[in-house]
Here is the input.
Amino acid sequence: MKTSNSIFFTLFFGISLCVFGQPNKDAVLMTIGNDKVTVDEFLSVYKKNNTKDGGVIDKKSIEEYLDLYTVFRLKVKEAKELGIDTTKSFKDELAGYRKTLAQPYMTEKDAIDNLVKEAYNRMQWDIRTSHILVKMDPNEDSTEAYTKITLIKDFINGKANAANFKKYEAMVKANLKISKTSPPSDTMAAFNKINPLKNMMKLKNHDFATVASTVSDHGSKASGGDLGYMSGLTPNYPYDYENAAFKAKPGEVYGPFRTSMGYHLIIVTDKRAHKEYHLEHLMLLFKKGMSHDDSLKMKAKIDSISGLIKKGENFEDLVKKFSDHRETAKKGGDIGWIAPSSNFPPEFKVAALALKSNGSISDPVKTKFGWHLIKRIGDRDLSPFDSLKADLKSRVQKDPRVSVAKEMMIAKLKTQYGFKEAMPKNISDFYAVVDSTLPLGMWKAEKAKALSKPMFTLSDKTYSQQDYAKYMEKNFRSAGRTTPKRIVDALYKPFVDETVMSTREDRLEQDYPEFKTLMNEYSDGILLFNLTDQKVWSKAIKDTTGAKEYYEKNKDHFLWEERLDASIYTCKDEKSAEKIKKMLKANKADKDILAALNKDTIINVYIDGKTIFLKGDNAMLDKTGWTPGITANETTKGKVVFANIRKVLKPTPKSYAEARGLVTSEYQTWLEKQWIESLKKKYPVSVDRKVFDSIQ
Here is the structure.
């Protein structure tokens, strides 16, 4: 029957080791038509398919494999002669495999491993941070934003003064081009930028939280900048922020540093060894539109439940009785394991972390969702590295931090491929040919047709301004108020990086002989599969005329085994069984027996519809030794059962319909054999026995 690609890849390309003598690897072992096959080509495939006896060659195994290999090469040659390797479907399929096989070569393994270890080491700590954010466009390089964050840090440290603020104020007005004649909308924009800093300068308290609540551009300003606990690989924390948090010393203002959001200052307010806690909770859920009286009643209810717990009533029983959180209520309130960095309301986590021992239960805790009572039922440390390694690697590879490994690889490849930028870089020439259409994605490379200078050289190929113009047209970035000039600058590095990685992928066969060999094997495997499907598998299924002709000529290949012609009777009682046996001795047919014993709705006998049996089909029949006659009664589930064995049927041919699956399989084998014989005539095979004997 039809076989998948994977079977052929396993047959011809499985991996193993083998021990060989040292014949001349370039010697011609065999010719197939006009194709020469060297010793090295043959042995490289043989090594991957023979693993028994530690890979030691014995004459029988290599002789057998030579036949298999010869057939394989004949089929592949025929596929190429037919042009299957030039078809779009073949090229698309091979390109898909290549993309997958190339992936291990497109990452810096050591850098990934280091990121995984770094993440695990950081996960051993839970760090609580507060921050102040000065927001800015990720595509901008704002001196104004940097000046602002620096002024904020100086203020917290007691170093800022009115003169510093005046410099910042002047910068804002200059950037917004504010003058005495500016319209109200422009002066309001300046006011909105300057006023938070002006209010900060009036503060008598330089405390981080107070300043954050006054000037931060982040929603956490409402809680003095507090972001709660984080750890390694905590979701929603940029890698740059994580790096800063683990570099900062507790209690000291760290920064400024930049993330995609803007500039930050942070302060570490707590650092503790990582623990995870197994918790249960009882929850009274706030309802939409609750009145003040309803809120008071709910508070009284949670206090009452808390009182029952303190009197010794079972927590889990009370959860099942009172909790509004249906998902956990049926499990006694179990919410599983959480860590300080888990995504739970801050008030909930604070109360949970305050529980000192397993079995302890909190007082009522209010969150935005309702009232909670929390019980700690277990605690544990971080799992060992080996048990988390695979998951951590997967998470790292999906995280933006993987760009660190990519940057390392690009730097390495630039050296390997002799990357050299033109001096000057010739990027400034584009400033005159880009306009407001670039951020809108409407700019065309045609506008830069006069530019032809080199940008850089990589792997002996020069990339020109025209190449960059085409890249910009295809890869524009909608960047809000960012100027076209900034987009030109911003796109240059991705252009270089993508060119480097594309060069890497294009050169894999050249740089890695084992990759070239692997691709050749996949190419041959796909050709082999596709042509065998055409000539054998699908043909045998579709060619019903040929299959029927094969069946008619080979009926003796599709015989039934000995079978038994018998009927099995299940009777209401012994009396009914005896009546049936008398009728059988009188040569009555089964239909007459049913008509005589079953009247109206009364069923005295049931006769199995099956009358032809193979050995193993029925245990009662097998016990008789298939001796014709009426068997003794057996009692099964209150019924009396016996059989009438009429005769043993000798082996006879199955009909085409009965044998179709077997016929198709055997017809495929026959088709393949005929095909191989025709290929041997079309492409004569010659083996140099002297060379072949030298490798045994």
User: Anything to note?
Assistant: The longest strand covers residues 262-273.
